[in-house]
Amino acid sequence: MRQEFYETRKVKDKGEVQGTFLKGCVYVEEKFYLILAKNSAQMLLINKLLRENGIETDLVPSPPESGTVCAIAIKIQGVNLEKAKNILFENQIEVRGIYEDKKMKLQGLIDKKLGASVSKEFLDILKKIEDGDELLEKEIVYLLSTEDIKEIESIYAAADRIKRETVGNVLEIRGAIEFSNYCCKKCKYCGINSQNKIERYRMNEEEIMEVVGYLNKIGLRTVILQSGEDPHWGTERLIQLIKRIKKETGMRITLSVGEKSFEEYESLKLAGADNYLLKIETTNRKLFKTIHPDGDFDSRLKCSRWLKELGYINGSGNIIGIPGQTIEDIARDILYFKEMGINMIGIGPFIPAKGTVFENMPPGDIDLTIRTMAVTRIVCKKVYIPSTTALASLSKDAQIRALKAGANTIMLINTPAKYRTNYMIYNDKNMVDIDSAIYAAKKAGLELPKYLKL
Predict the structure, then answer these.
(1) Main-chain phi, psi angles of 447, to 5 degrees
(2) How far, in Å, CA of 152 to CA of 290, rounded?
(3) Nearest alpha carbon to residue 169 among 431, 435, 404
(4) What span, in angstroms and rounded, lies between the C-alpha atoms of 334 and 375?
């Protein structure tokens, strides 16, 4: 931010004239602050009050020092801090905390031994990571594309350290129920798209609740309800299901049911939905249209902004290796996650699905997928990054490697056996269960969550 200094002095020019003249200027770093509310409802109220009083806000992942994983903070400029505090006081609102939005510095990433074995360009980027500076697109591209073993190892080490210092060394475990494979969309890469000839199913509410009961019994705190865009499972039915899950278990609920209207998202949030996963898939508009022939990029962006505005823990993600994708595309995806303040980022390799136009294409590269997770951790810091089911489907070892390189979450597949083989969004899907999650955590050196009851 440019700060200018002026002085008032008299000058002689056809008589004495007093004027104000620029004496000098200096560039100072503008401060930002993060307001952490006690709950989602309070956060939305505060955000509304601040905006009504002319304070510009942004909703971003909570700061590391808050101790709250995957919560949303309200970001404001430092010049508005006192005004914001007065608004909170006048409305008798007590918040969890207010934190300066500081750079996250990491000392010790560079040593003499490393400096002698890597490029100067990489050292410059690593120095920016140490200092907590934002990376440019070209620097992210370098991290994604380097083939130097020492540099790759340093990227993974930095990502792992950032993970431990922001979200901790505990593996987060979520349980997913794929409750319908009906879908009205025509996404070219997806095995359950409306044009693919597969056996269709819909779980009923009682079947879903039976699985939810099991997840609650083993201590899981979050259930993921995932489906195609199925009109039969409309908003009113989902609201009824959400309320029942909340009443009977109190579990947090993540929805992954596609694009909806603002009013529908709002109704689902009011019913008790906590999180929403709606992947951007790619930020390349042309590629997005290619893989989503009946989709609209601007509509997807709008939905993601609505979810953020409504206070959802907002999930997005991309597919690594989708036909037509470039390294530059992936770098822009990562910057999008950062700029949008995404809380949960699902990064998985492309896996061809039988019956689709891409069924004979090669799968995405495992190493590039893990590298993307690591660089996303470096750029986005305090977010949930799952070691995805798609990655485990290509290699069980790859899921463990990802947990050592910035990922911190595993999603269990809890769809009943009689249905799960028909939820084939891609071929040879790995059915990750609680035993494989525990095995991966131990191999990756992560602690198991204390909420597990096994």
Answers:
(1) -80, 150
(2) 32
(3) 404
(4) 8
φ/ψ of 331, rounded to 5, equals -60, -40
Long-range contact pairs involving 121-127 (C-beta distance under 8 Å, separation at least 24): 122/146, 122/148, 122/151, 122/154, 126/154, 126/158
Looking at residue 224, what is its pLDDT?
98
Contacts of 235 (CB under 8 A, 6+ apart): 260, 264, 267, 268
The structure's pTM equals 0.91
Predicted confidence (pLDDT) per residue in 422-449, tens digit:
999 988 888 899 999 999 999 999 999 9
Interval 164-179 mean pLDDT: 96
pLDDT of 8 reads 55
Strand 344-349 to 313-320 pairing: parallel
Confidence of residue 26 (pLDDT cuts 50, 70, 90): low
Question: What backbone torsions phi and psi does residue 253 show, to the nearest 5 degrees?
Answer: -125, 125
DSSP labels, 172-236? EEEEEEEEE-------TT-TTSTTS-----B--HHHHHHHHHHHHHTT--EEEEEE---TTS-HH
CA angle 351, 386, 201 (to 5 degrees): 55
All structural domains of the chain, each given as residue ranges with its CATH number in brackets, are 1-102 (3.30.70), 165-444 (3.20.20.70)
β-strand partners of 204: none
Residue 429's SS3 state is: coil
Q: What are the angstrom distances between the C-alpha of 396 and each of 227, 321, 387, 391?
A: 24, 19, 10, 8
391 within 8 A of 429, measured Cβ to Cβ: no
Go through the chain and tell me how many residues it has: 454
Pairing of strands 97-100, 32-36: antiparallel
pLDDT at 70 over 80: no
Average of per-residue pLDDT across 285-295: 98
Residue 267 CA to residue 239 CA, distance in Å, equals 8
152 SS3 class: helix
Q: Which two tokens stand for residue 350?
A: 């492309």
Contact 135, 183 (CB under 8 A): no
Contact (Cβ atoms closer than 8 angstroms) between residue 46 and residue 95 = yes
